[in-house]
Fold this protein.
Amino acid sequence: MNSSLLRSLTPSVIGVLVRRGADFAAAEDAVQDALMEAVRAWPTAEPRDPKAWLITVAWNRFLDATRADTARRRREDLVDAEPAPGPAAAADDTLRLYFLCAHPSLTPSSAVALTLRAVGGLTTRQIAEAYLVPEATMAQRISRAKKTVSTVRFDQPGDVATVLRVLYLVFNEGYSGDVDLAAEAIRLTRQLSAAFDHPEVAGLLALMLLHHARRPARTAPDGSLIPLADQDRTRWDTSLIAEGVQILQLALSRDRLGEFQAQAAIAALHADAPTAEETDWLQIVEWYDELAALTDSAVVRLNRAVAVGEADGPQAGLAALTPLDPSLPRYTAVAAHLHERAGDLPTAARLYAQAAREATNAAERDHLTRQAARLNTQGHA
Amino acid sequence: MAKYLLLKHYRGAPSAVNDVPMDKWAPEEITAHIKYMNDFAARLEKTGEFVDGQALAPEGEWVRYDGEGRPPVTDGPFAETKDLIAGWMIIDVDSRDRAVELAGELSAAPGAGGKPIHEWLEVRPFLTEMPTITE
């Protein structure tokens, strides 16, 4: 059994323990112990029913822990109080755990950490390594998060939008250690989509698949950034694209549009273009209009200006940029690109250099610096 | 989920409000100051926001490459005017506001007379990884 298959059992096993009367924090610890035990024991003796094995081991760990506590009396009332749930209940438990771990009382970083541990089944060390913080710090973050949600009722329905934001953060943060966070986010979103039929869950899954499909083409061997227009499209993963498009079409057919479906539609239009020149920018602009109506986000209007620049020419793009706040992240980079396309190379070079100074990530900074250098050296030639 | 570097200077920062050199403090004031710094780091570990903290010696030298087959050139000690970093703390927080709030607390470390130093600290965001979704 591979580790992500093993980890996929995490939320439903926690759910069983909670139904039997364990509190969430103790159940989560017990299941982590059982997962580690499984990693040790299963390579030589894989159980016939992995989930039942995990439930037994986790429950025993929980009993050991409570035995050490003062809750002995309570424990005796709990033992085998409830049978293991069937598949429908397991799906409900899984969904409840997503809601709990993305509870609005948690900060984004705690919700992310708790989701990766209690839903994803990752160890604290793996999560710490993925986010480049010491293990002790991540352990404290997770334990505080568990304390924060300790008074939340497990069976309380949550807001799926908060869950989707957490999964989006996991996917988009882009750190990569031993744990591939993007792949993990996709796995968790798939699992959510199996437990909860909702067009925006499908929309987010499609969005992730369509972007993940481009990953092999996004960076050069030296790690430098390759913009969408310059990517080798033969390196895009066509099976991920096909899956993403199919999921998206099914979601859109239900006529309950949301921001993730609209973002996925834009990604699908890019994926659909055999070359950058064949991109259907008119349709992309229309999707940005939909997205702007749904979110009223300045970042969306900025990206829309890029699309307008491609659809109707750089002057139209610059006009779409005019009403926006120049302090928006990436505003200067977009302005530089549009000025270059409009033929104003000195302005473009100056703006690329300024955008490089304003960049918040190293890959983009280096890319923008190279753009400025390219225009500056062209000027001398 | 953003990392910030809090930089403390031996010199080169604007003057603190309670600007008395440490060797003019009472010994117990120095003890209280160090305790405050340690407690601050310990508290950040508890909140799950601590990444690293280190102190630097005031002494050091400039070093540069001097060509193929030649040893690096060194130059020192530092000129009296050089901006001099005393140490740093790296934090991992949810927002810039939180980073500023924590830097403010660190700057309140007690100095001469047991009063807060109101020291100027440099707060610098780390460059992050490239996000996956940009368009």
About this structure: The first helix of chain B runs from residue 27 to 47. The interface with chain A takes residues 1, 3, 45-52, 92-94, 125, 127-135 of chain B (CB under 8 Å).
